[in-house]
Amino acid sequence: MAKSKEAKKLDTSTEEKIKNAARTVFHKKGYAATRTRDIAEEAGINLALLNYYFRSKEKLFEIIMFETLFGFMQNLVMVMNDEKSTLEKKVELTASNYIDLIIKEPNIPIFMLNEIRNNSGGLLEKLPIKQLVMNSAFINQHQKAVADGKITEPNPLHFLMNLLGLVIFPFIGKPLLQGIGGLNDTQFNKLMQERKKLIPVWIKAMMKAK
User: Could you give the domains of the chain?
Assistant: First the structure.
């Protein structure tokens, strides 16, 4: 029994090592440019062992893509479905949480942009993103704000696109923006930290504009 438990523990540890390596390589290179050999090298194991745990690159990628998208959307959904926080607070938390997340995992925006474009239908089938967002407290609060005359734009998708665009686009355009501003990584991240306070102000102004 002891040997069985030890073997199971070893299996779990190896699987996680492979997944962590795959996450690193896929996020950096994307699906098409990644070889299973790249993942094996990143994990520090031989290719045969990787193939033993995960039979194909496709299967491993599917797992990593699902986990990445789920983790990214879970943050948003948790904030959006908080009945106690105001619409303004939701904007603050979304901006703050995602800026912190992407500074920590800078390859995620490009990875998600490329892979969602290539397989949006399959991902939407596995994750009920539409239902989670459109039935959220955020949508209800947005509609009430429109009815009360506090927001002039009635389509909540504009609100959401503006918010996520202001957060995510600078990271996608990071090399260009760093070149324009002569910024190193530390200076760029400082600029992004400043946006935590600026984005809610801009969103509030945009939603009131006529």
Answer: 1-55 (1.10.10.60), 64-208 (1.10.357.10)
